[in-house]
Amino acid sequence: MKRRLELWLAISVFVLLLAACGGGGEQPTETTESKPTESGAPAGPVTTVDPATAATLTGKVSFDGEKPKPRQIRMDAEASCASLHKEPVYAEEVVLNDDKTLQHVFVYVKEGLGDKTFATPSETVVLDQKGCVYTPHMIGVQVGQTVKILNSDPTTHNIHPVPANNREWNTSMSPGGSPLERTFPREEVMIPVKCNVHPWMKSYIGVLKHPFFAVTGKGGTFEIKGLPPGEYTIEAWHEKLGATTQKVTLAAKDSKAIDFTLKAAS
Amino acid sequence: MPEKTSPVEDKDPVVTQSLSGLLLLSSLLLMLSLVWAVWDEIYGQRPWKSIQKRFSQRYTAFLNKAKPRQAAVEKSVRQSEEYRKLEQEILDKEKEIAPKLKEIDQETIDVIGPRLTAITDPFALARSEIQAVTYRVEVASSQSAKDSLGRQIEKLKARPVQLTLPTGKGHSEKLRMNFSQLEQEFNRLQQRKAELAAVRGGLVKPVSELRAKLDAFVKDRMPGLTERQIEGLANKMRLFNVDIKQIHVKSVDLVDRCETCHLGIREPITLTKADMGGEGAFTSHPTKALLQIHDPERFGCTPCHNGNGTATTSVKKAHGRYKHWLWPLYDRENAEAGCHQCHTTDLVLDNASVLNVGKEIFRGRGCVGCHRYEGFDTEAESLAASRQAIRKLEMDRKEHEKNAEFTGKAADAASDNKEAQRLYAQADALRQTVSNIDHQMEQLDIQSRSLLREQKKVGPSLKEVRVKMRKEWIPVWLEDPHAYRPMTRMPSFRLDKEQREAIAAYIWQSGVQGQLPAQKPGDATRGKELFETRGCLGCHAVGEGANAVGGSFAANLSRVGEKDHYDYLVRWIHNPRERTRPFCTHEKRDIGPEDYAKKGLPFVFDLEHTTCPNDGHELQVQQMTVMPNLRLTFEESQDIASYLVTLKKPGASYPAAGYLDDPQLKPKGLALVRHFGCAGCHEISGLEEEGRIGTELTKEGSKPIERLDFALLTHDAKHEGWYTHKGFFENKLKDPAIYDKGKAKAPLEKLRMPNFRLAKEEVVAVTTFLLGSVDSTLPGHYFYNPKDQRKDIRDGWWLVNKYNCMGCHQVRVGQKSVLSGLARYQDPDWKEQLPPTLIGQGARVDPNWLARFLENPAMSTTDVNRNGVRSYLKVRMPTFSFSNEEIRKIVRFFDALSAQAQPYMPTKLQPLTDQEREMARGLFTSKAAPCLKCHATGDPAHDRNATAPNFLLAKERLKPGWTARWMIDPAMMAPGTSMPSGLFRREGGRWVFAGPVPATFGGYQKDHADLLVRYMFQFTPEEQRRLAGRGPASPAKVAMR
Fold this sequence. Notes:
The complex is a heterodimer.
Chain A: H1 2-23, E1 31-33, E2 46-48, E3 55-64, H2 79-82, E4 106-111, E5 117-118, E6 125-130, E7 133-135, E8 138-142, E9 147-151, E10 157-161, E11 171-173, E12 180-182, E13 188-194, E14 202-208, E15 213-215, E16 221-227, E17 230-238, E18 242-250, E19 255-257, E20 260-263
Parallel strand pairs in A: 2-5, 3-19, 3-20, 6-9, 8-14
Antiparallel strand pairs in A: 1-2, 3-16, 4-15, 4-17, 6-7, 9-12, 10-11, 10-13, 13-14, 17-18
Chain B: H1 13-16, H2 20-44, H3 47-78, H4 81-139, H5 143-158, E1 161-168, E2 171-177, H6 179-221, H7 227-238, E3 247-249, E4 254-256, H8 288-293, H9 296-299, H10 302-305, H11 315-318, H12 337-342, H13 353-364, H14 367-370, H15 379-412, H16 417-454, H17 465-468, H18 473-479, H19 481-484, H20 497-510, H21 524-533, E5 541-542, E6 549-550, H22 566-574, E7 578-584, E8 589-590, H23 593-598, E9 619-622, H24 634-644, H25 665-675, H26 714-720, H27 725-734, H28 760-772, H29 789-802, H30 828-831, H31 841-844, H32 847-855, H33 884-897, H34 914-925, H35 931-934, H36 940-943, H37 954-957, H38 960-968, H39 970-973, E10 984-987, E11 990-993, H40 1008-1016, H41 1021-1030
Antiparallel strand pairs in B: 1-2, 3-4, 5-6, 7-8, 7-9, 10-11
Helix pairs in contact in B: 3-7, 4-5, 4-6, 13-28, 15-16, 18-20, 20-25, 21-24, 22-24, 27-28, 29-33, 32-33, 38-40
């Protein structure tokens, strides 16, 4: 008798659960659903942001100080790469646009999202090794998102991320070999990536639990879309000039612009 | 007339007095005491009964809770893709073999089995009949009887037997068989049965193997026990008996009943206090590994933990925490004291981090300068012993020489030839004995030379003060060393002003006179960079308190600029072992240029010139510091010294100290220096062979408590509960003057031990060490006295700590070097500048090479301002000027850690064929294998950016097996290494290069990693030049695989 009761209970709970999941897609506001993460560990509910309320954050990052002299890279040791460059190659450390805005600044939401978790995007982010330079110089990915590493050079590279909070690895990639697909299981801003064979090669990977980040480009600008309304701390991180933060409050459908200034290292 | 009164009725005690009340009372008392006696017998004396019941309940509850949890984990493991794949594989396999199994089983069950059953009886009957007759043949006495019985056997054999044999599927056949037919059929059936069983076994084997793999899969992935294992434990609890649990080790007459209450201690599951309802007594042993090494059935509990193992009547009794038990249970924080009893001579033990700290403090802070402790700082004693032996031999020699001369003269004057011959022979014998003494003396001198190199002092030499520092600093330092340098090893002595002045005056006036060459000023900026990158920070720190950057092994240099002279610092940095004057251990004085001049010798003394010009005995030619020589140029030393002299605290001032030159203070100073035992840690003129002033501490932990002088605090200590060894040690270490409290003593009668300002955990560590320093009653075989390589490991740790190898290197798994923790080395480009890990060093390098390297890390006698192997590292492997014995110990240490056989017999490698050589050359220079991009080649322009050693070193330096394993997965041995992984992949039982290989590799079937190792191990400078000329192969030559 008791058994039967339990069985009925179990079945009704199951049916209720099914109904809840089925209806999830049609909910108008932020919804959550249970989804295991990449590592298989149970994660909190996944947040989806309603496009109708989402806010956008834009802005630009400028440089304050005397323009540093770019450091030319000598690729004499790797003729096959040197020959790929007609112009001299400079280290992408402090890349300034003409209007003194900065490229390669990682702008991201540092605080304010609370415990929200976000689905891992299925699209891969590509990091290429071309002409003994990493392209792009800086990327951002989500935890568990696949980074696809290519070697387009006629020489062997070794790709060696040196993280503090993730697992370190160092893998040889021969010319013409198949691309390497890797993920980072933990949040970290930023993971330096280097090639020990070509010590001038340097890249940075930012790993976040959420999709709200951007890397400044030619105009020194960034855009972070789809933010749920809220109060946020935004950080602008630069490999040589350090990091700076700003607080911003976003209402539903807000579109705000904030600018950062990074000072030359003294 | 007296009135007649009725007689007073005498009170009849029987009637009027009753004892019933008393009786009732006593019977009640009797009753009560009976009840009490019964209660005490059952519960009072057996508190463990209720404890055991409680354990049983809580453990069962815990298991019941753990079971579904573990079951869920197990389920998730069973649901993993890999598990399912394995399971599916098993199912497929079972399906595959099922028809065949069915066939076999059918034949066995249907035909062979019943047929055998049917035939066995008739066959056995027939056989026994024949055997019976055969026996009679054997015992028959006449030939005729034998013949007739023989005929009977023939008849029996020929007699047909009627029987029905099944043919399967319920059918059967009726047969008539004679004996040989029966036998044949029986044997056939038996054989067939065995055949079928064998075939069945062969078919089932892969399945059972897979099943075992599946079980292992679950076990390997389960954190903790499986559901079934927990069920087993729960069953055990169901059958739990409430009784005394004891360990009895007959050979040592040890009875430990600790497990009567500590029932969970050996449980295979981890039980925390929280798991067991907050009852700490029920936890499992916190370090299970220790129980595996020290099986409780053999070691018991109390030999490690102390306490009264036999007591069961109360917790207090069992823990030995009462007046009449001498060895109470060690407190949790001091638990590792128990290790030391048997591991007396181990400096470093796995699983004893507190004890390790305690021993290291005792060794490194200079405790041993005042307190003798067996096994610590043995060099001085050995040196004294060998010096004494030399003296004795010298006397013997003189005696023998004299005798030889007299005997010879007597022989010359002998009256007859026979007597002359006898005496000449005697004289010869005496001279030969003298030659033997010479051999012995030579060995002792060699030994002394070794010991003189090994002998170190905790503090700097005070003979050098005059050339080293400004004199005003000395009294300030003596007043409170911790005020000037908070983390210093120098303890604070309780000296009054007068005492300080006298001591300072003696130190100053006894210092050696000398003039150091004036040094050119250096570049402080460059010096700072050198200081921070050459490895100085592995031992020294700069910055105080939380701002300190660097190691704490040697002095914190934050204020060094306030005291030391620039010229001296330059000399010290250039070669810290350099002395102003050598010390003659025989004459017991520092000798100077005048002594050399007398013999017409130049004033040259160093590790190559170590004999005294006066008597030919060994000199101490080095400063007795562990600081090694970094082989810097004078220019670099000037730069670093220029930086160091800038390290000052702003505004620090030192009062004038003219009295340091007052000769009247000197004798008083000497007495005080002697009284306070300064020479225990410092080299001081006139006190080079001072004895230790403190108590020997080797057995201090088992000293009777009455002999520990609590002085006027005895009452308080007893009252407050710290009248124990632990209480005595802790309070003494915290405040060494504590037992002077309340006493009126003359200044020189006061306790002398200075205050080391030990941190709380340091006090605990040293206390642990002292508590464990006992006169053990255990039989010898309990002591850790390994004769195998474990002894080498033990000896090695003394040197690893002595020279602070771990400041720069990783020596044990899990340990981080000081350098690797510095902010600078977190940068990826600096990370590859870290010194190599020494994990697996014994497996990596040829021990003979390592010995040479340790002796001369520059691997050159002319070009010394470099690293011999990793020339690209900014950090420098210094020259420690080890003695031969020390080198031997270090090499053996690394060999033992990697379980390498000794002596090392290099593996013979197969020579390369011409084709293989050509292939290897091709691969080495191909774009796919950029070996020569990172590894040094000897071309200075290239080597500036190299990050790995030159292949030319491989042959004499490396071991081939290690080299192959390294190439295949370097990150496994050295996480974070610059050398990439994934250069090779596994293909059909061999390693092949993962990238495109030169066309010459076509059809090559051997291991590629092995090919490269063999190529490396025959690498010559000529080959290297040849490769350099070749350059990377053009892409056209590279075939894609």
